[in-house]
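Case 463 in the screening queue. Each case pairs one protein sequence with one candidate compound; here the compound is iron/sulfur cluster. For every case the pipeline is the same: read the inputs, emit a complex structure as tokens, and attach any notable structural observations.

Predict complex for case 463.
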Amino acid sequence: MKTLSVATKNQTTPRREKSSIGSHNGNEADDEPPGESVTFCNPEEEPPSKTVTTRYRFFKHIPDSTWNDWKWQFRNRITTIDELTKFIPLFPEERDQIRLVTKKYPLSITPYYLSLISLDDPDDPIRKQAIPSIQEIAMGSMGMEDPLDEKGDSVVPGLVHRYPDRVLMVVTNICPVLCRHCTRKKEWRNGGWVRTPSEVEAALDYIRQHKAIRDVIISGGDPLTLSTQRLENIMSKIRRIQHVEIIRIGTRFPVVLPQRIDNEFCAMLTKYGPIWLNTHFNHYHEITPEAAEACDRLVRSGVPVNNQSVLLRGVNDTIETQIKLCQSLLRMKVRPYYLFQCDEVQGTEHLRTPVEVGIKIIEGMRGHTSGLAIPTFVVDLPQGGGKVPLQPNYVLAQTEEELLLKNYEGRVFRYRNPNPQTRREEAEVATPVSGVVDSLLAGADLPLETKGEVDANRVVVRS
Ligand code: SF4
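Case 463 output:
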């Protein structure tokens, strides 16, 4: 199978031996207890599983009950270079570069997500998503701050109304992990905020007054940084609006902090269905037992889970990676929904791939795995133009009567259209389908192969 990877090896990483993590004070989420510190453990005592290995490398003395407490994870996010260098081996020059980048685009990683990084691999796909790169500012003039023009479509603070029947409620700008490819990267500079009750009320009022809105998407930042109680307060009010049919939640917590999807949260969701949850797995290394349990809890609570991944250079830009990712998603009952072309956001240019890469990936997946595992590849147009799905071209030629179609193996088939005019003529003269496609094939210089008398008109062409 073809590989479209554009990843390059750029450096080797020095090893570090000891580390500790300090408390973190920038947490704006509700009900957060104060920070605790963690002690480094001997790497020699690593168990075999990859996820557990990195966890044990640094967090062995953290009891499972603490490790699985999402508030502990959230509070102990790594947000400074000094903290980061205790875990990730960095050259001094690299450290200086990252420090420079974080002045513009800050850093935040949960201990759980950090534990997924393979420390010896500078091209690790989790690392590329979470650790700042100098390219964010070196190529910083390329792209736009707000490529989707969400500002232009904001009807009240925190409410984007672009499509007639749905709205996007941005309830906070806080995320447990700051993904380097984030479309809302410009929001990171404004400090952490959560919408005030009066702002939420203004957004709800707008929804109440616009009866065409049948779908409300709660997003951020990541809305799950709010306490379950605060989320319930918002969701219960949305559910009381009669014309709102579905509520959608956009969150990356199942990927970066799956412990957040606890029983309390799932029990709350069951009260306000139908609720759909869209999450954002980008690589199969993110599919861990913890993530699978979180998705299982959601599905058992009646919440279908869809995945919206972003195509990223050197992270998931091969057919093999996408097939592995999407098949792993299906195994944990998550539907691969969209594969997004990375938006033209300032500070993300180094992670963007040419549009053709996405189309070739979809072409390479089709036929090699079930259709359920194939997401729709989408470009979200600048200036609020909306999403455009892009597909490989399977239609080689077309007339009113017939099409010339290419299948996943590159074989070419004639396909008769049920054209009423043709049917009438056929009934009158009782002749086989005309040779329109034959004339299309005439100059194509393609070997033909018929499938026998029964469907002699269905010519198979090997390209
Ligand atoms: S979770 Fe989503 S909103 Fe938050 S930083 Fe990542 S991509 Fe951006």
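Case 463 observations:
- Residues 18 and 40 are 6 Å apart (CA to CA).
- The pocket of iron/sulfur cluster is lined by residues 175, 178-179, 182, 184, 220-222, 252 (CB under 6 Å).
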